[in-house]
Design goal:
The complex is a heterodimer of chains A (381) and B (312).
Chain A lengths: L11 H27 L4 H10 L7 H30 L7 H17 L5 H26 L3 H20 L13 H4 L23 H18 L1 H11 L1 H6 L4 H24 L16 H11 L4 H18 L11 H13 L2 H33 L1
Helix pairs in contact in A: 1-2, 1-14, 1-15, 2-13, 3-8, 3-11, 3-12, 3-13, 4-5, 4-6, 4-11, 4-12, 5-6, 5-11, 8-9, 8-13, 12-13, 12-14, 13-14
Chain B lengths: L1 H27 L6 H18 L5 H29 L4 H27 L7 E3 L1 H4 L3 E4 L2 E4 H19 L1 H11 L1 H6 L4 H24 L5 E3 L7 H11 L4 H20 L4 H6 L3 H19 L19
Antiparallel strand pairs in B: 1-4, 2-3
Classes of the chains: A mainly alpha (381), B mainly alpha (312).
Chain lengths: 381, 312
């Protein structure tokens, strides 16, 4: 008998992409409905504006410049997403990425503005600070059985207040924002290596952008091709089984959250060491970067490479929201859309399950029909 | 001093209400990480009611605000119920999405409403100065807030409901061992829906109490500034038991109140501790307490795990 060709709908990668596209389409559609409700006249144009983002500029140099801006913010988002992704592979929901990101921001800005250190040291500081925050969660989880979600949330707020306090000494007199890097310590700005030339001399496009993509690829290789990655994933699948197989599950958990924390912390350095944004020392809520990372991770089908594209997409529409006519539509529409997309990602598992079931049922039916036909053929002879 | 007591009580009321909400949801087996978002939605509904009813009799204002915010919270948690009970979604993911969604949606809605009233007003702020008077009864220097009473009633009702009624015991069974509960004829899905919706009601009321606690206008871009998460900490600190939750809420409310009024105490002001330290305290305390108590945690055993009949 001829082996039946596997249906494309059964392919896990294809399913993830299909699910992601479905989430995006539904998310955008709901966003469109909200725009319609606010002001029907310009709703169609507005949703196109969000999706066009930098393409809203008429000339190519301007477009490239603002594409650069979107990429500058994609890099930290991708790092947060990778942090969550990496931990999720080991069965840990690193909701603390937001706090690790905050810790990284505090550490690198303090190193840059107060201690006036060069960029590579600042970057390292951010990595270490994020790593420490992650390690705390890991220790609590491994040795005191504290749920990593709860510990992460607590640390998010502790980190926010801590960093606000730390950076209060290096802020402008007249505003709550920290000093500008370009006027205080240019040595702390990440090098561009000539990348800005591709983006109409957008000086904020630094090595952070290619580095973050490189890190995504490295993580993918670590998780799928190395013994270390295999052990981590095994711990994620079944903690006890991993333990009995001789793996040190406690060490693995702490290590995972440490790496996750370092990734998120580095992400903060990737943004704040470009000088693109300053930290607001009166911030009363944890920056959304870490939470948007959750969106990017799940939208990317929990795959490091998929996460690259998903991060770009989330940032693309978030930046796109800024081009809406503020007199008619609030720019938070794009946050609304990404929140809806995260919510819909919760249904992805069920979606895949349902799809597998359908494909299986269809195959069953075809097989049964074929057998039936064969049996009938036998009888008539 | 009176101010400190007043703030402690009102913040404790918020935390009690919201933590009790979380408690019901978790006892039924669903982790409601979206309490923060539920509070925002409750606050939105309540604030709009307060604004709309300016000038109405006080009793009407109080009752309507409670009713509308409870309803807003209830409707919002339907999102959690659908995803986590019927579609087996990751509850942490859905909760997080709800938190982001609530702040974004509330901001968009308030801005749209403000802009419709006055095209020049693009802020996300709702004012309810006049209606707020309805919520408060002055006893000397102490401002008694009707919501404090609501919190106490909710606490007593929750205790009775959870431990003294058939419904409560069944609800808790669904969070401990849903398979066993199902085998004796309890409808696990229905019970979980009940838990989730009750958490929506309480979370929603908590939202309106929070935004009327100290101020008379609210900027919805800030959401509820982490109070929903603080309530989660209170719930865990209270080990999922209503009476302990009430006590934990008083403690956490006290620290929160200190950060508001510490400058009024000469000896505290002399210590020159920044206000942010007091803000941080509740979170640090709960982390430390969690570290010591989680080994033998009283958390509902089946919380966070979608119920699947076929695993019975």
């Amino acid at each position: 008998m001829k082996t039946q060709k596997e249906s494309i709908f059964k392919n896990a990668g294809f399913q993830s992409i299909l699910a992601a596209i479905l989430c995006i389409v539904i998310g955008l559609f709901i966003g469109f409905l909200v725009l319609l409700a606010i002001n029907p006249a310009g709703a169609g144009e507005a949703i196109v504006t969000i999706m066009r983002n930098f393409l809203n500029y008429p000339t190519r140099p301007a477009q490239m410049k603002y594409l650069g801006n979107t990429l500058v913010k994609t890099a930290p988002l991708l790092m947060c997403a990778l942090s969550i992704n990496f931990c999720y592979k080991v069965g840990l929901f690193n909701i603390g990425a937001a706090g690790q990101y905050v810790a990284g921001a505090g550490a690198c800005l303090y190193a840059a503005l107060a201690l006036e250190l060069p960029w590579y040291i600042c970057l390292l500081c951010a990595m270490v600070a994020g790593g420490i925050f992650g390690t705390i969660v890991g220790f609590l989880k491994a040795y005191a059985n504290v749920n990593e979600v709860i510990a992460g949330i607590m640390l998010n707020w502790i980190g926010l207040y801590l960093v606000n306090m730390l950076l209060a000494g290096v802020k402008e007199q007249a505003s709550p924002y920290t000093f500008n890097l370009s006027s205080t310590n240019t040595a702390a700005i990440l090098p561009t290596l000539g990348l800005e030339k591709f983006f109409s001399n957008n000086k904020y496009v630094t090595i952070a952008v290619p580095l973050s993509i490189l890190i995504a690829i490295v993580l993918y290789i670590i998780l799928t091709k190395t013994k270390f990655g295999y052990e981590l994933q095994a711990t994620g699948f079944n903690k006890d089984a991993a333990k009995y197989a001789g793996m040190n599950e406690k060490r693995n958990m702490i290590l995972t959250l440490m790496i996750g924390g370092a990734l998120a912390g580095t992400g903060a350095a990737f943004l704040y060491l470009t000088g693109f944004e300053q930290w607001q020392t009166t911030a009363s809520s944890v920056p959304s970067m870490g939470f948007n990372g959750i969106a990017a991770t799940f939208l990317g089908g929990l795959h490091p490479i998929g996460t690259i594209f998903a991060s770009y997409f989330i940032q693309h529409i978030t930046s796109g929201g800024a081009y809406l006519d503020k007199a008619i539509y609030p720019s938070q529409i794009s946050e609304l859309i990404s929140a809806i997309i995260i919510y819909l990602c919760g249904f992805v598992l069920f979606f895949k399950f349902a799809m597998n079931k359908r494909v299986d049922a269809a195959q069953e039916r075809r097989k049964a029909a074929a057998e039936n036909a064969a049996a009938k053929g036998g009888e008539s002879k | 001093m009176i101010l400190l007591i007043q703030y402690t009580l009102i913040f404790a009321s918020v935390l009690t209400l919201v933590a009790l909400g979380g408690c019901f949801s978790e006892h039924s087996g669903v982790i409601n990480l979206g309490l923060e978002g539920t509070m925002v939605m409750g606050a939105l509904g309540g604030a709009l009611t307060l604004k709309a009813l300016t000038g109405a009799p006080y009793i009407v204002i109080v009752l309507a605000a409670i009713l509308v915010s409870a309803l807003s919270g209830l409707l919002y948690t339907v999102l959690l119920g659908v995803a986590s009970i019927h579609f087996k979604a990751d509850q942490t993911l859905v909760g997080t999405a709800m938190n982001i969604l609530a702040t974004a949606a509330a901001t968009v809605m308030v801005k749209a409403i403000n802009m419709a009233e006055n095209p020049d007003n693009v802020s996300a702020t709702i004012q309810y100065v006049n209606s707020k008077r309805a919520l408060i009864v002055r006893i000397g220097n102490f401002e008694f807030n009707w919501f404090m009473l609501v919190a106490v009633i909710a606490l007593i009702c929750s205790y009775v409901l959870l431990y003294k009624t058939r419904f409560g015991l069944r609800l808790m069974a669904c969070g401990e061992n849903p398979q066993a509960a199902d085998s004796v004829g309890i409808n696990v899905f229905k019970m979980r829906w009940a838990g989730v919706l009750i958490s929506g009601i309480l979370g929603g009321i908590g939202g309106i109490v929070y935004i009327t606690a100290g101020v008379s206008e609210w900027k919805f871009e800030t959401g509820v500034a982490g109070f929903g998460f603080l309530a989660l900490a209170v719930m865990i600190f209270g080990q999922w038991k209503p009476t302990n939750i009430g006590l934990a809420a008083l403690l956490f409310g006290f620290f929160r109140a200190l950060s508001n009024v510490y400058s009024g105490f000469p000896f505290l002001a002399a210590l020159k501790i920044p206000g942010t330290i007091y803000n941080m305290m509740p979170y640090i305390i709960s982390l430390i307490v969690l570290a010591f108590t989680s080994k033998n945690s009283r958390a509902p055993k089946a919380e966070g795990i979608p119920y699947d009949k076929s695993t019975r």
